[in-house]
Structures are given as structure tokens and as C-alpha cells.
Design brief:
The protein contains 14 helices and 10 strands. The chain is an alpha/beta fold. The chain folds into 2 domains: about 45 residues; about 280 residues, HAD superfamily/HAD-like (Rossmann fold, 3-Layer(aba) Sandwich), CATH 3.40.50. It has a 6-stranded parallel beta sheet, sandwiched between helices. Helix 5 packs across helix 6, helix 5 packs across helix 7 and helix 8 crosses helix 10. The protein is globular, with a radius of gyration of 39 Å. The chain starts with a helix and ends in a 16-residue tail after the last strand. The N terminus is likely disordered.
Length: about 425
């Protein structure tokens, strides 16, 4: 090899090495760009898939919303609910009025006040929240949840039936004479009447004396379920509850309220009647007919110990009504031990109970007053209604108007008739 070739060889090797390095670098750069491009393509593809999925979800949600709206519209159409009524229901604390309160006019502002109150006390985030144990609601019975115009209070109707119509009870001439006077006034004027001498409270004791509480309640239920209401067609006494108020009771029960009955009617009568609406016996406060051990005789209760084979029987009546007017808050304090936050009534006998709830020092309370101002579907009185509305406004209670707030009272199949008037005198088969 010549000297010149020897001198050029290192240069050639260095050149070739440089070319090789450049080639390697170029290959790596191209591979890197390829991988980057591939990653970018994959990311783009993934983003496109995500966009497609979101679009599908959005479209599905829109379809569900349209379907839900269509279903709601169909249901509203079938129930006769207008668009305005749907709006009231939608804004009424998620209450479907057509389902929860079908007997109410959905635009009732008084009902809305109740719904707002319940929404506050059941919302744990609300400053008005109440623990279930403190959600106490008290209801009067006659005229508040049950007809008192059929033609008079139900305990009067029950006692009239027992003395004048029940073939298994042999009434004395005095008992029959007294109750006939009571019936004649009730049937002709729709009013209660207490003659001198024996009165209804006396007769409740004498007419049902000797029955156990269970027997008496069974008698009341049988009477209520098989005796047609006087002054109406299409219902028995057991069906003469105001549908709108029963819906209120069920609504409160569904929201963990303890519902209590507080009535001047006899306790066992009330227990027998309201049990059908899941109000237990121990949630009934009312006027008591004293009980006595079957073997006690004339001995004082503190001097006599009953045996295991004895029964508790109905005895003599109380000297005075212990569960009316201011007696109602006293009875509530004695038997519940807590003040209610809701109270419902319909007469001067309930004023104290409503004020007791409104004046609750531990929590805002509300009193609701049922006004019998419907003269077409009920035996209402415009004059009395006007007086009650004045009292409601003065006291700050919330009125429930039978005429304006209630879509129906007893159901569309029930019709008001005329009172039959006084009966002609005749010898009754159950006279002793």
C-alpha cells in the first residue's frame, strides 16, 4: 500500500463512522417522531370516542326527559290536572298533589302553608328541623276529620240508636222519652239537645254499662259500618270522615309525625272510629267514662283488689267533660308530656289547643281551623263561618275552607239530602 493511502485511511474510517452515527441519529429521530405521532393519533382517537359517548349520554338524557315529560303530561291529562296545577305540585316541596292530596284543590294556599311547614321540620339542613319524636300533631275529631252534621255528633247518634232502635237493648220509658226528644231536635234542626234530668252523657253510661272496653268498641264499629248517615245518601257513619283531612293525617304519618286525637267525645268511641286510619289506642285523648273491676261493687277502688278472672267494665259517666276547651291542653300535657307543633280543630272547643300549639316555646307551631262554609255539599252556616273567619284572622291561625279548599268532602258518590224532621210518636219495640 502506498504512503498516501495509508495517510487517507484514518480519514475514511472517521468519515464512515460519522456517517454511521448520523444514520443512527436520523433513525432514532424518525422513530421518535413516529411514536409521538402514533401517541397523538391514539389520544385523538380516544378523545373522539369520549366525545361520542358524551353525545350518546346527552341524547339519552334528552330522550328520557322528553319521555318523562310526556308521561307526566299524560298522567296530568288523565287526572284532569292543568299545567298550572302541575306547576303548583312541582314547586310544592316535591309533592304530587294529585297523588298525595287528590281531594284538595291544588291551588289551596292553606294546604301549601302546611306542606311548607312539614318540609322545614323534616329537612335536616333546615333551621326548622325537628326530630321525629318531637313532631306532634293533635286533631279534634267531630267537625275536624269527621262529620258533625249527620245530623249531630256521632256519640249522640250512637246513643240514639242504642236506646231507640237496638232490639237487643230494653230502654226504660224515661230513657226512651229523653232520647226521642234529642232525636226530634236533631232530625228537624240539626242541633244537639239535652233535656232536663237525664242527658246524653248519663245515657252513654246506662245504655252501655256492663260492656268491656273491647265489647263497646266492637259495638261502635258495627254501628258505624252498618248505619246510614242521616242527611246524606251514599255513606255510613264509618265513611263520614272528611277525605281531605284523612289525606292530611296520612301525609303527616308518612313524614314521621305522631298523630294524636284530642276530642270531647268518649274515648272508646274515638278509639273505635279512628283505628281504621292507623291511629293507635294510646294516641287517643278524650272524655273518659270510668272503668271498674267487675267484682268491685260499691267499694272504693283503693279498697278493692281485683282477681285474675275479673274484667274491667264501663261504669258511670264523669260529672263534667274533661277534654274540651282549656281541658284539651291540660290533657295533652298530662298524657303526651310535650306540646304539639301542629293542631287542627273546628270549634270554640279547640281554640285552646290551637293556641297551645301556636305558643310552643321550643319550636314554631301552627294551628289550622276547619271552617264549615259549604252549604251545598255540607250543612254549613254562612253566619257561623264569618264569625270563625274573624276569629281565625285575629288569632293568626290558618283556615281550611270546605267550600274553597276541598275538591270533595266525602266523595262524589255521596249526596246531601234533607233532614227527615221530627218523628211521629209511636210505641218503640225496645221499650221496657
Amino acid at each position: 500500500m502506498s504512503e498516501n493511502r495509508k495517510n487517507r485511511m484514518p480519514l475514511l474510517i472517521a468519515f464512515l463512522a460519522g456517517v454511521a452515527v448520523a444514520a443512527i441519529v436520523a433513525f432514532l429521530l424518525i422513530g421518535s417522531r413516529g411514536s409521538s405521532t402514533k401517541r397523538e393519533e391514539q389520544a385523538a382517537k380516544q378523545e373522539e370516542q369520549t366525545d361520542n359517548q358524551e353525545a350518546e349520554v346527552s341524547a339519552s338524557a334528552q330522550q328520557e326527559a322528553v319521555a318523562a315529560g310526556s308521561t307526566a303530561q299524560t298522567a296530568a291529562s288523565q287526572s284532569g290536572t292543568t299545567e298550572g296545577e302541575q306547576q303548583v305540585a312541582a314547586t310544592g316541596k316535591n309533592i304530587d298533589y294529585a297523588v298525595t292530596f287528590p281531594s284538595w284543590n291544588p291551588d289551596s294556599q292553606s294546604l301549601a302553608e302546611l306542606v311548607d311547614f312539614v318540609a322545614g321540620v323534616t329537612d335536616e339542613k333546615s333551621p326548622e328541623y325537628l326530630e321525629p319524636a318531637d313532631r306532634i300533631a293533635t286533631f279534634d275529631m267531630d267537625g275536624t276529620i269527621l262529620s258533625e252534621k249527620a245530623p249531630v255528633y256521632i256519640d249522640y247518634c250512637l246513643t240514639m240508636y242504642r236506646v231507640l232502635d237496638d232490639p237487643n237493648f230494653k230502654a226504660t220509658e224515661e230513657e226512651r222519652s229523653v232520647m226521642q226528644q234529642v232525636r226530634d231536635v236533631a232530625y228537624s234542626e240539626g242541633k244537639t239537645f239535652d233535656p232536663e234530668g237525664l242527658n246524653k252523657n248519663d245515657l252513654v253510661a246506662t245504655a252501655f254499662a256492663g260492656m268491656t272496653p273491647e265489647e263497646f268498641r266492637d259495638y261502635v264499629v258495627d254501628f258505624a259500618d252498618h248505619t246510614d248517615v242521616v242527611g246524606f245518601e251514599g255513606m255510613t257513619y264509618g265513611q263520614s270522615f272528611y277525605k281531605p283531612m284523612i289525606e292530611v293525617i296520612e301525609y303527616l304519618q308518612a313524614n314521621d309525625f305522631e298523630v294524636w286525637m284530642v276530642s270531647a267525645c268518649e274515648r272508646e268511641v274515638v278509639r273505635a272510629l279512628v283505628e281504621r286510619y292507623n291511629i293507635p289506642y294510646d294516641h287517643v285523648i278524650a272524655t273518659d267514662v270510668p272503668y271498674a273491676a267487675s267484682g268491685k261493687g260499691e267499694e272504693a277502688a283503693d279498697d278493692y283488689n281485683m282477681g285474675s278472672d275479673e274484667k274491667i267494665l264501663l261504669g258511670a259517666p264523669l260529672d263534667e267533660v274533661e277534654c274540651g276547651k282549656s281541658g284539651k291542653p291540660a290533657a295533652i300535657a298530662r298524657e303526651i308530656g310535650k306540646r304539639p307543633v301542629l293542631a287542627f280543630g273546628n270549634s270554640s272547643g279547640d281554640f285552646s289547643m290551637l293556641n297551645y300549639a301556636e305558643g310552643n316555646p321550643d319550636h314554631t307551631g301552627m294551628g289550622f281551623f276547619v271552617v264549615c262554609d259549604d252549604t251545598e255539599r255540607e250543612y254549613g252556616s254562612d253566619e257561623k263561618a264569618a264569625d270563625f273567619y274573624d276569629t281565625v284572622e285575629k288569632e293568626g291561625w290558618t283556615p281550611f275552607s270546605m267550600k274553597n279548599d276541598w275538591k270533595t268532602i266525602y266523595g262524589e258518590e255521596v249526596q246531601k239530602t234533607e233532614l227527615p224532621g221530627a218523628e211521629e210518636e209511636e210505641a218503640l219495640p225496645n221499650a221496657a
